[in-house]
Design a protein that fits this description.
Elements (H helix, E strand, L loop, with lengths): L10 H4 L5 H16 L5 H15 L21 H15 L6 E4 L6 E7 L23 E4 H8 L1 H4 L1 E3 L2 E7 L2 H20 L14 H14 L3 H4 L8 E7 L6 E7 L1 H9 L3 H12 L2 E2 L7 E3 L4 E5 L4 E4 L1 H4 L3 E2 H7 L5 H10 L4 H10 L5 H15 L3 H13 L3 H18 L9 H8 L6 H18 L19
Antiparallel strand pairs: 1-2, 2-3, 4-5, 5-6, 6-7, 8-12, 9-10, 10-11
Helix pairs in contact: 2-5, 2-7, 3-4, 14-20, 16-19, 16-20
Length: 471
């Protein structure tokens, strides 16, 4: 980018600030200046304004309320001229300003008013009570206000609202913005760009995890490293439109990201993907069943079967992805899937360790117990499954272990103690793990042993349960 204004700090136009919105704008400026380094910042502002007005018909209302571009009183080229006029006043410092500390960067500089017309999710006018000392807006440096203009080009629509994905890793943030900028450039080249980029996924959970998938396909070091335990993502889903500005924040914490990324490994990916694909739901297609061999959903009608391909059902809700994003357990989903499907137990182990903080010793003991309980006749296996599934208290589960495991092991004349007192207290009933999780993992492990031995036991488990949290 050509540096032509001595009143501006060009480094602050592009360097990360920690603010998700202005960082998007900074990465857009960096992207555009690398494409055309001969343009100065005012020329980049003009370039952006022309796209918004001439290509997008000024449709950036979800970002800015009554800006020069979204102001209904301005028409056509007037929107562009007024935009250039305003930003020129910032560059020349002729706009009303005061000296102080920028609310985003913290640096001492000349500050200008940031309201809903030139920034995101801030108060102005009648909402001055939102601001410190009842100022007429957030007081920001000119560099931050310039960055705001470029945010639409690096953002994306998800289900009718703007979305910005932000990470604790700067290169991931830049990857998200550059991906959107490149898509916008391609659409402009094909004369098909008519507004902010739209995601093919209308549901935030689907879109966020799709972005994670894109990270794995990229060449970013963070996406290919084994050490992904520190990476987290946040999706800001918002609108600054009219009288009803609103924002919803979705967080993908580092432990969930680590689990999800581990499931993309060669040994686990096939089982994990089938599990994910089988858990899309849509109220308009109630009763649709997943056909695993064809990777489609089938809805049986009176005289026909409607087949629904991935291009259609990828826009449905996915209960697995939603639960992961909400940090709700997916263990029961694993159990229900494992009844009829052979499934890599390592996925459940990794989930319990990374997300639920379960000890490996607990998981090892549960696998040992599952092997013990399936080394018997089918009738005994059925009784164990039905008993386990019917338990509603930790007391019943303890009695099961004492009667059906410890006592049986003793009566069989084994010289090895299958459950020690220490294992019972610290691994099977620890204070930080629900007894229901122990039961459900044991049920899952039993079914996987049966799959391995080609033994079919008919016993349906309910998909959901209602528990008393004080049990």
């Amino acid at each position: 980018m050509k540096e032509t204004y001595n009143t501006i700090d060009y480094n602050w136009l592009i360097q990360p600030t920690g603010d998700p919105f202005t960082d998007v704008g900074g990465y857009v400026i960096k992207y555009l200046s690398e494409k055309d380094p001969e343009k100065d910042i005012l020329e980049l502002i003009e370039y952006m304004a022309k796209i918004y007005v001439n290509r997008w018909s000024g449709k950036i209302n979800p970002f800015f309320l009554n800006s020069a571009i979204t102001q209904p009183a301005f028409k056509g080229d007037v929107k562009i001229k007024e935009t250039i006029k305003y930003f020129s006043s910032l560059l020349n410092e002729t706009a009303s300003n005061e000296t102080g500390f920028c609310r985003i960067t913290g640096r001492k500089a000349k500050l200008f008013k940031a309201g809903r017309d030139n920034s995101l999710m801030s108060g102005s006018g009648g909402f001055v009570n939102f601001h410190h000392n009842f100022q007429f807006g957030l007081m920001l440096s000119k560099e931050m206000l310039i960055r705001m203009l470029f945010i639409p080009y690096g953002s994306i629509f998800i289900g009718g609202r703007i979305a910005v994905i932000y990470s604790n890793d700067a290169q991931v943030n830049e990857f998200f913005v550059r991906k959107n900028c490149e898509a916008n450039d391609n659409n402009i080249a094909m004369a098909s760009s008519d507004g902010v980029l739209k995601s093919e996924y209308g549901i935030p959970a689907n879109a966020l995890f799709r972005f994670v998938d894109d990270l794995f396909l990229s060449q970013l070091k963070i996406a290919t490293d084994d050490d992904t335990g520190k990476l987290s993502l946040t999706l800001y889903h918002f609108t600054n439109f009219g009288a009803s500005p609103e924002i919803v924040i979705y967080k993908l914490p580092s432990n969930v990201f680590r689990f999800y990324s581990t499931c993309q490994s060669i040994k686990l990916k096939s089982d994990w993907q089938q599990f994910i694909m089988a858990h899309y739901v849509n109220s308009k297609f109630k009763g649709a069943k997943y056909n695993q061999s064809a990777s489609i959903y089938e809805l049986t009608k009176k005289d026909s079967i409607e087949q629904i391909s991935f291009d259609d059902y990828k826009t449905w809700r996915n209960v697995v992805l939603e639960n992961l994003l909400k940090e709700k357990s997916i263990l029961r989903l694993f159990v229900n899937w494992g009844i009829k499907h052979k499934f890599n137990f390592n996925i459940v182990e990794i989930y319990q360790k990374y997300v639920q903080n379960m000890k490996q010793e607990t998981l090892n003991k549960i696998k040992e117990l599952a092997l013990f309980l399936t080394n018997t006749g089918e009738d005994a296996i059925k009784k164990s499954i039905r008993a386990l599934d019917g338990y509603k208290s930790s007391y019943e589960l303890r009695r099961f272990f004492l009667k059906n495991v410890v006592a049986k092991n003793y009566n069989d004349g084994s010289n090895d103690t299958i459950i020690t007192m220490e294992e019972l207290v610290y691994y099977l009933f620890p204070d930080d793990v629900s007894w229901r999780d122990i039961r459900d993992i044991l049920l899952f492990a039993i079914y996987q042993e049966l799959h391995a031995k080609n033994i079919r036991v008919e016993a349906e488990l309910p998909e959901e349960e209602t528990y008393n949290e004080n049990e």
